[in-house]
């Protein structure tokens, strides 16, 4: 796979971003309720720092959404068939650079439990646990923090 290009997501990408969220293999089984019916709306894409990794044929391989106030990585997804190819690392490096350019000193992440090892490899530190938010989220989630230089 050639290195994807990172570009600002556009409102017209919302449907493809929603598809990445809803079809994520990481949210099968007990985690499925969290993404069932989830929509990444054009308004959301316009309002936040949403960037996509784009591959051959303008295919969106992954994306992240950074909220600046308060600073939080709200969404981060990589297509199942693109995982393990460095797309997630590329997106996180871009997110940290973008957060630094925006003047942030840290970025909070409430992680999907299976994703915690990935975020820790990217340099995040666990600072606590976030409680369940029923009815969709019935499990604790790791709270992590990226410290920016």
Automatic annotation (TrEMBL):
<dbReference type="InterPro" id="IPR016181">
    <property type="entry name" value="Acyl_CoA_acyltransferase"/>
</dbReference>
<dbReference type="Pfam" id="PF13673">
    <property type="entry name" value="Acetyltransf_10"/>
</dbReference>
<dbReference type="InterPro" id="IPR053144">
    <property type="entry name" value="Acetyltransferase_Butenolide"/>
</dbReference>
<feature type="domain" description="N-acetyltransferase">
    <location>
        <begin position="4"/>
        <end position="145"/>
    </location>
</feature>
<protein>
    <recommendedName>
        <fullName>N-acetyltransferase domain-containing protein</fullName>
    </recommendedName>
</protein>
<dbReference type="InterPro" id="IPR000182">
    <property type="entry name" value="GNAT_dom"/>
</dbReference>
